[in-house]
UniProtKB/TrEMBL annotation:
EC numbers for this chain: 2.3.1.21
Location within or outside the cell: Mitochondrion outer membrane
Gene Ontology BP annotations: carnitine metabolic process; fatty acid beta-oxidation; long-chain fatty acid transport
Catalytic activity: (R)-carnitine + hexadecanoyl-CoA = O-hexadecanoyl-(R)-carnitine + CoA
Top EC class, one word: transferase
Membrane-spanning intervals of the chain: 54-75
Family, as annotated: Belongs to the carnitine/choline acetyltransferase family.
GO MF annotations in UniProt: carnitine O-palmitoyltransferase activity
Protein name: carnitine O-palmitoyltransferase
A Pfam short name: CPT_N
InterPro entries named among the record's database cross-references: Carn_acyl_trans, CAT-like_dom_sf, Cho/carn_acyl_trans, Cho/carn_acyl_trans_2, CPT_N
Gene name of this polypeptide: cpt1a2b
Length: 759
């Protein structure tokens, strides 16, 4: 192969005169430059480890402490209270050093120990400060003096520019709630959903659980909380995601969309060039820890641990459980186009290719007319079907030879790219229908043209539209949304395009062609591919997606009424569901717990006594709406600060399974269906977008499939001041749920709520 020959640094032949050594200086230079890049990355990582290791102090503060100690000693004062003299007595260098040298070395050792002690003290103080959450429960505009002092102290201890992971060791651990408190909150949350008889029975079950098994399970959980960094996250990742044996497509993976009204370029290869470049620039920032830590109110840091596995990560299937595999780095991406897989190198001699060069390479793939190899075209269906068959096929047929090498190229790639041969977006005479098809395409595609195991896959459509599909186990939507915001903004506003729609930059036309991945796929695998594809297609064909840009008003008007936009939307969802289905249901709203180290999510049970009272009543609507809004805000804050319900009960259930004991109460609680599953996609980097001068550059956010067979999945994003975009999903197989009908009801209820609030 041509690529193999170009990779050889030197050749030699045997002649009668001896060995004739022919060096390729160009190849050696490429090796040298690649090695320089590798060493630069190692040095950068070592430097960042030092900076993080001494945070919230700085490495230069060591010199300040040393000078201060030496200065006090010069003034014939002993700041160590005799410790320097004791260190000097035990120095093993007393023979080779004079008295002055021994004193100097002892002073340096004492200064270093003092400096490290100060770092630990500062870190402990910062952790104590970050454990204070009362600020979140104070009314907007009414900040207590305690909170003002607290904010000042937090800023003093974290004033200099932190790296991405600088706060990690200073974040508090997630606390284990009291079992009595959790049971009380649980019973309060289900009260509007149960009859008096059902509620009495559930109360008795809860009381019996608390007085018998509950306290025993709680002790084990507290022991884990003392030992583990986070008592929830590892079990949540394993049992909710990795141990699921059903397809992850639709059931777990979620999607993110392009701009609503704008496509920066209609050239597919050019959009791919800029998108891939922007993603790799983001990866560089993550690797160098140059990203600013996400902070609430510009003060309170959130855990950044989920960023660690963003790139070069794949979920590999197993018989009982899947495994997340992460590699340190990779210099290529995997590309799929018309049934063929390619390895696209994005670095040349340690240099990131320009967007124009990546476009050139992508165009080579698009122009490649070679047919797929037998069994190659629909191979990706294995990642879309059930996990056990994929695990068995992987072990039997992809563990050696060319299949292993090709699979490794996909799994080790920075991310996966699909060059789709369809056009998508809000276009043509049916913009609403096209948006729905766009969502379904990103959620599942053709069920074989995405690699659903990758941490995320990018889709570039024929008309230049793009989007992504993300695997859920390694991180939650806000982490991927942060990446996608940066990608869209960098693509449109920083990298840009020429007037004819191509990427900017120069092209080295001597670049080696993208490498076709080779396969030897036996008939047994091809049969399983068809079987997995049938399972995936049945799942995909049952999903009803509807995208609903609500533009009648946005958070601007809601906030003028001094109401939380999220509470407003959640109450509107309760009202819409009641009008649509004639009752209430257990409602899931995802809340993050990243105020704590390795925190992920908690459930906000949005269907409350107050929201149900508002929905049912025809009197005192405004007062009841305010009560429901305040209640929802309080529930959300409690979930964020570690006082949620569902993760605690989930962990108690896991402990009971490890102990081999059954709890009728826990079993019933965890079997309850979430017929209304909701999530807000937050806009975290508004500074990247200039909506005043470029109002059409609005992100559509993303969505996910329905959680329950007879329920709805609702994702929404509050865009700017005047728009709320909804992604609603349900299943065609349930005659009582219709995504498009629900959004019409939702729109009517939104207008009704706004009218009530203004009366």
């Amino acid at each position: 192969m041509a690529e193999a020959h170009q990779a050889v640094a030197f050749q030699f032949t045997i002649t009668p005169e001896g060995i004739d050594l022919q060096l390729s200086y160009q190849a050696l230079n490429q090796i040298y430059l690649s090695g320089v890049r590798s060493w630069k990355k190692r040095v950068s990582r070592m430097r960042n480890r030092v900076i993080k290791g001494v945070y919230p102090a700085s490495p230069s503060s060591w010199l300040f402490v040393v000078i201060a100690i030496l200065a006090t000693m010069y003034m014939r004062s002993d700041p160590s209270m005799g410790l320097i003299a004791k260190i000097q007595q035990h120095l093993p260098l007393h023979v080779s050093l004079g008295a002055q040298g021994q004193t100097m070395v002892s002073a340096l050792l004492f200064s270093t120990l003092l400096w490290l002690s100060l770092i630990l003290a500062l870190r402990f103080c910062l952790k104590l400060l970050l454990s204070y959450h009362q600020w979140m429960f104070e009314q907007h505009g009414r900040i207590s003096n305690t909170t003002k002092v607290w904010v000042t102290l937090v800023r003093l201890l974290s004033g200099r520019k932190p790296l991405l992971y600088s706060y990690q060791t200073s974040l508090p651990h997630l606390p284990v709630p009291g079992i009595k408190d959790t049971l009380s909150r649980y019973l309060e949350s289900v009260r509007p959903l149960l009859t008096d008889v059902e509620f009495k029975r559930m109360t008795e079950l809860g009381n019996q659980f608390e007085s018998t098994l509950g306290n025993r399970l709680q002790r084990y959980l507290k022991l884990k909380a003392l030992w583990a960094t986070n008592y929830v996250s590892d079990w949540w990742e394993e049992y909710i995601y990795l141990r699921s044996r059903s397809p992850i497509m639709v059931n777990s993976n979620y999607y993110g969309m392009d701009f609503l009204y704008v496509t920066p370029t209609p050239v597919q290869a050019a959009r791919a060039g800029n998108t891939i470049t922007a993603l790799l620039l983001y990866r560089r920032k993550v690797n160098r820890e140059e990203l600013k830590p996400v902070r609430l109110c510009t003060v309170i840091p959130l855990c950044a641990a989920q960023c660690e596995r963003m790139f070069n990560t794949t979920r590999t299937p197993g018989v009982e459980t899947d495994v997340l595999q992460h590699w340190q780095d990779s210099e290529f991406v995997a590309v799929y186009h018309k049934g063929r897989y390619f390895r696209l190198w994005v670095y040349q001699a340690g240099r990131l290719l320009s967007p124009r060069e990546i476009e050139y390479q992508v165009q080579r793939i698009l122009d490649d007319t070679s047919p797929p190899q037998p069994g190659e075209e629909k191979l990706g269906a294995l990642t879309a079907g059930d996990r056990i068959p994929w695990s068995e096929m992987r072990k039997q047929h992809f563990s050696s030879g060319i299949n292993k090498r090709s699979l490794d190229a996909i799994e080790r790639a920075a991310f996966f790219v699909t060059l789709d041969d369809e056009e998508q977006g809000m276009k043509g005479e049916d913009p609403a229908g096209n948006l729905d098809r766009y969502a379904k395409s990103l959620l599942h595609g053709k069920c074989y043209d995405r690699w659903f195991d990758k941490s995320f896959s990018i889709v570039i459509y024929k008309n230049g539209k793009n989007g992504l599909n993300a695997e859920h186990s390694w991180a939650d939507a806000p982490t991927v949304a942060h990446l996608w915001e940066y990608t869209l903004a960098t693509d449109a506003f920083q990298l840009g395009y020429t007037e004819d729609g191509h990427c900017k930059g120069e092209v080295d036309r001597m670049l080696p062609r993208p490498q076709r991945l080779l396969w030897d796929i036996p008939s047994e695998v091809q049969t399983q591919v068809q079987s997995s594809l049938a399972v995936a297609q049945a799942l995909a064909n049952d999903v009803d997606c509807h995208i609903f840009p609500f533009v009648k008003f946005g958070k601007g008007r809601i906030k003028k009424l001094r109401i939380s936009p999220d509470a407003f939307i959640q109450i509107a969802l309760q009202l819409a569901y009641y009008r649509d289905r004639g009752g209430f249901c257990l409602t899931y709203e995802a809340s993050m717990t990243r105020l704590f180290r390795e925190g992920r999510t908690e459930t906000v049970r949005s269907c409350s006594n107050e929201s149900c009272a508002f929905v049912r009543t025809e009197d005192e609507c405004r007062r009841l709406f305010r009560l429901a809004s305040d209640r929802h805000q309080n529930l959300y804050r409690m979930a964020m600060t570690g006082a949620g319900i569902d993760r605690h009960l989930f962990c108690l259930y896991v402990v009971s399974k490890y102990l081999g004991v059954d709890s009728p109460f826990l079993k019933e609680v965890l079997a309850e269906p979430w017929r209304l599953s909701t999530s807000q996609t937050p806009v975290q980097q508004m500074e990247l977008f200039d909506l005043k001068n470029y109002p059409d550059f609005l992100s559509l956010g993303g969505g996910f499939g329905p959680v329950a067979d007879d329920g709805y999945g609702v994702s929404y994003i509050i865009v700017g001041e005047e728009m709320i975009n909804f992604h609603v999903s349900s299943k065609y197989s349930c005659g009582e749920t219709v995504s498009q009908t629900s959004t019409k009801v939702l729109s009517a209820q939104g207008m009704l709520l706004m009218l009530l609030c203004q009366l």
